[in-house]
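Example record

One chain of 222 residues, shown exactly as stored in the release files.
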Amino acid sequence: MVRAHIIKLLILAMLIIAGILLEVAGLLDAEKMLDIARQYSDHWWLVLVLILLQAVLFTFALAGSFFLWIAAPLYPPAMATFILVAGGTLGGIGAYIFSKHLSDDWIQRVEHSHAYRMLQQHNNFFTLFAMRVFPTFPHSLVNYSSGILKVNLGHFITAAISGLAVKSYIYSSVIHNATTTVSLDELLDIATYGPLILLSALSLMAVFIRYKLQHRHNEKQH
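Predicted C-alpha cells for this chain:
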C-alpha cells in the first residue's frame, strides 16, 4: 500500500517536472513551436510528431489543445483535423488508462468537476459527444472522468473522434483561411462557435429524451 502511494507521488512529481521543462524550453509557446514546425512542414514525419506530442500532453492533462494553433496554419483544414483528432483521441485513451494511477487528491478534484457528475448520471455517447463538441470544454476532465467511471470505451472513442472532428474542422478552417489578427475575432464569433453549441445542446437533449423514455418504461414495468 505504501509502495503504491510512493509510486503515485513519483509519477506526479515527474509530470510536474515535465510540465516545467516544457514551459522553460518554450515548447508550450504556440508561436515559437509554429516557427520550428514551419522549417519541417515538408517532411511527412512532422504529422506523426504533432500527433504524438498531443497524445503525450493529453494523457497527462497538459496543454494539448494549443496544437490547434500549430496544425491549422500549416496544413489544409482536412489534414489539420486529422492531426488534431488523432492526437486528441490517442491522448484521451492514454488518459482513460492512466486515470487508475491518479493520486487520491487528483481523483477528488475530478470527482468534484461538472464533467464527472454529468457522466456519473449519463455515461453514454450523446453526453460524451456533447462535451467534446462544446467550445472550451476541458477535455482532460472528460478523459479522466471517463476512466475513473469506466465509461464504455467504444462510446468514449467514437464520441472523441466525431466530436473532435466537427470542432477541429470548423476551427481549423477559420484559422487556416485567416491572414490577419482578425482570426481570433472570427474564432470567437457566434457564427463560428454557434453551431458547436447547437450540436452540444441537441446531444444533451437526446440524453434527456432517452432518460425520460427509460424512466417511463421502468414505471410501466412496476
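Notes: The longest helix spans residues 190-221.
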